[in-house]
């Protein structure tokens, strides 16, 4: 949790040899639309190419002198021009402009000097991933059992979009602590006690408890899947939504039943899923659907970015309810996020004392795993250990 040497190994053996989330296809719907962001600690940008209409993911670096080419977080462009020497590239990545081209002579092949695409890129249900390892398994194989839960989120939303705006912050703690926290059903009651009291005050019935399971999904992915103790804008009414929302949410539920059948509709409407896709993507399909990534800056600091995913044809009142649900619990000033940051930073402070070097995550090993056990965390740590120790060949 505190070792710079382990941090360096993670960058080399985990983040350089995994599929990493880049963004959602809804962020680049029109030709020339782009977003830029660090992925696995490296600057990239994703763009909808004008001619092919395909999504491209490029290293955000000029092939001339290495300067950053895409200098805004998002926008629309026909050409990306490097501000240093004005080399220009189209949305397909081709080098299309070189001032004083004649000065270079005939020995330089400009056709080979376009933007460099990432080694691998793939799209699953609108979620765009990239990998720096050209030999990594196909994304479909890599996702393994996580596909079931991505499908539940995608089908529940229908045609989905990332809502404009991001929630960005940093935590002075090791990134692996947030992995654990994100799929930890055990801490919710003591850590987020204020939120549960808030729900009860609004009329939410929490008396029946939370039933669920924790699962390993293969390749380090994991999930906690449990009955929703609170409302879900997908199709589960909650007193905090107001009486005027009852009929509307009933209609949404009926639509899910018509499209997917009663059993699958019930899973979408009445159960929560905290899904972890190894190594650093969390999809919280809970009172709202959030997409969250985090990246270690050092052994004791990480940067976190979160987005909200919603139906693109959602009625304004539904959208407002969804955003309220997201911000009330997971927003920067919500009931959960400040609690979690305090908990993780407290853990990191404790680790610095040197009294212990690792966490105990043995809860539930003597029984079939519940949602408040730790089997899902052990799935992450097993895969992490394989990679960091070089046992899967990623240490080459």
TrEMBL record:
Residues 20-102 form the Rieske domain. The keyword Oxidoreductase applies. Keywords: 2Fe-2S, Dioxygenase, Iron, Iron-sulfur, Metal-binding, NAD, Oxidoreductase. InterPro entries: ARHD_Rieske_2Fe_2S (IPR015881), Rieske_2Fe-2S (IPR017941), Rieske_2Fe-2S_sf (IPR036922), Ring_hydroxy_dOase_asu_C_dom (IPR015879), Rng_hydr_dOase-A (IPR001663). Signal peptide: none annotated. GO terms for molecular function: 2 iron, 2 sulfur cluster binding; dioxygenase activity; iron ion binding; monooxygenase activity; oxidoreductase activity, acting on paired donors, with incorporation or reduction of molecular oxygen. Belongs to the bacterial ring-hydroxylating dioxygenase alpha subunit family. This is Rieske 2Fe-2S domain-containing protein. It comes from Pseudonocardia petroleophila.
């Amino acid at each position: 949790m505190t070792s710079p040497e382990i941090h360096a190994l993670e960058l080399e053996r985990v983040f350089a040899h995994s599929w990493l989330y880049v963004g959602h296809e809804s962020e680049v719907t029109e030709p020339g639309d782009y977003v830029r962001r660090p992925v696995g600690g490296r600057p990239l940008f994703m763009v909808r190419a004008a001619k092919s209409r395909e999504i491209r993911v490029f290293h955000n670096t000029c092939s001339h002198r290495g300067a950053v080419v895409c200098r805004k977080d998002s926008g629309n462009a026909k050409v990306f021009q490097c501000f240093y020497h004005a080399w220009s590239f189209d949305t397909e990545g081709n080098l299309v402009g070189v001032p004083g081209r004649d000065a270079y002579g005939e020995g330089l092949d400009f056709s080979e000097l376009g933007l460099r695409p990432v080694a691998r890129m793939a799209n699953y249900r609108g979620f765009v991933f990239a990998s720096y390892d050209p030999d990594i398994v196909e994304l479909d194989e890599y996702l393994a059992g996580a596909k079931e839960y991505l499908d539940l989120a995608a089908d529940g939303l229908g045609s989905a979009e990332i809502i404009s705006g991001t929630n960005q912050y940093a935590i002075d703690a090791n990134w692996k602590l947030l992995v654990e926290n994100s799929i930890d059903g055990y801490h919710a009651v003591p850590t987020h006690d204020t939120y549960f009291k808030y729900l009860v005050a609004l009329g939410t019935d929490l008396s029946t408890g939370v039933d669920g399971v924790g699962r390993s999904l293969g390749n380090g992915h994991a999930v906690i899947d449990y009955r929703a103790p609170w409302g879900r804008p997908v199709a589960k009414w909650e007193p905090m939504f107001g009486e005027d929302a009852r009929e509307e949410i009933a209609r949404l539920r009926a639509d899910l039943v018509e499209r997917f059948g009663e059993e699958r509709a019930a899973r979408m409407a009445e159960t929560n899923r905290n899904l972890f896709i190894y190594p650093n993507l969390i999809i919280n399909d809970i009172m709202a659907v959030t997409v969250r990534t985090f990246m270690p800056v050092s052994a004791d600091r990480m940067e976190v970015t979160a987005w909200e995913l919603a139906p693109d044809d959602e009625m304004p009142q539904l959208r407002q309810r969804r955003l309220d649900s997201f911000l009330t619990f997971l927003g920067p000033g919500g009931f959960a996020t400040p609690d979690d940051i305090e908990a993780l930073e407290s853990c990191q402070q404790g680790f610095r004392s040197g009294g212990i070097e690792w966490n105990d995550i043995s809860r539930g090993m003597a029984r079939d795993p519940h949602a408040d056990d730790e089997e899902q965390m052990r799935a992450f740590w097993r895969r992490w250990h394989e990679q960091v120790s070089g046992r899967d060949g990623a240490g080459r």
